[in-house]
From TrEMBL, chain A:
<dbReference type="GO" id="GO:0005840">
    <property type="term" value="C:ribosome"/>
</dbReference>
<protein>
    <recommendedName>
        <fullName>Large ribosomal subunit protein bL32</fullName>
    </recommendedName>
</protein>
<keyword id="KW-0687">Ribonucleoprotein</keyword>
<dbReference type="InterPro" id="IPR011332">
    <property type="entry name" value="Ribosomal_zn-bd"/>
</dbReference>
<comment type="similarity">
    <text>Belongs to the bacterial ribosomal protein bL32 family.</text>
</comment>
<dbReference type="InterPro" id="IPR002677">
    <property type="entry name" value="Ribosomal_bL32"/>
</dbReference>
<feature type="compositionally biased region" description="Basic residues">
    <location>
        <begin position="1"/>
        <end position="19"/>
    </location>
</feature>
<dbReference type="InterPro" id="IPR044957">
    <property type="entry name" value="Ribosomal_bL32_bact"/>
</dbReference>
<dbReference type="Pfam" id="PF01783">
    <property type="entry name" value="Ribosomal_L32p"/>
</dbReference>
<keyword id="KW-0689">Ribosomal protein</keyword>
<feature type="region of interest" description="Disordered">
    <location>
        <begin position="1"/>
        <end position="22"/>
    </location>
</feature>
Amino acid sequence: MAVPKRKMSRSNTRSRRANWKATPTTLTTCPQCGAAAQPHIACPSCGTYKGRHYAVAERTEHQA
Amino acid sequence: MPTPTKGPRVGGGPAHERLILANLATSLFEHDKITTTEAKAKRLRPLAERLITFAKRGDLHARRRVLTVVRDKGVVHRLFAEIAPDMAAREGGYTRITKIGARKGDNAPMVVIELVREPLSAKKATVKEAEAATKRAAKQNESKQAAAETKAAEDAEKAETTEATEAAAVELPEGAVAANEDGSAPEGYTVKGNADSGKYHEPDGQWYDQTIAEFWFKTAEDAEKAGFTKAGAGS
């Protein structure tokens, strides 16, 4: 089985991990309640999507 | 090589996958609306829609085909008796998947998959109606055209006969011209001819102004030649 010959340096490890970046979530405003919501997903504050209401989509402050 | 199944695999094996999908379908037809992960919902949708198509067919064979997947007879009865009639006007698209965000714990994207049981939207219904109407109109037009053709032929015949009679009535005497449509005198013609009385009126005559002229003559001689008599001459 192939194994690494040398220990990877701290520098190499960190420079690789430096490129792991988080991207901001795309957000739109809910047309029903005006809260921020992800596009194509039912609004987490009022639970509506395209005029229909989904109670299971609603999230409280600490659930989100 | 057989075409691989579309979508992600679920469960620990083929039998497990069948069980999971059958259970999901059973729950969906029992409750109309279930919350599950996006992957499972996307596998469930084609299966559920096929079962609804069977239910719309509604015969015993279709029922037995459905029973091989949904084992619960009560649920199958509900599918055939309650759900299928609601889907009668719909041509596919019996289910709707709505994303509701990620699940806490494993961050799995969750969805609500539901049966679309409300009647077709007004817009779609009108579109369908309009299409039907155009079809009907096209059919009616064909029959109408045929009727119109026969009618036109009749009209033409009638017109010919009336024209003939009219021509006989308004046959122009020699040396006369028909009056203009507004009753005014054609240029150069000064003598009025009254077709009803057979009399002609010269411009200095007593009844010249009140006479409605069917014919106009250039001179009194022309009128006399045409068989008209001088107004007031006889009396």
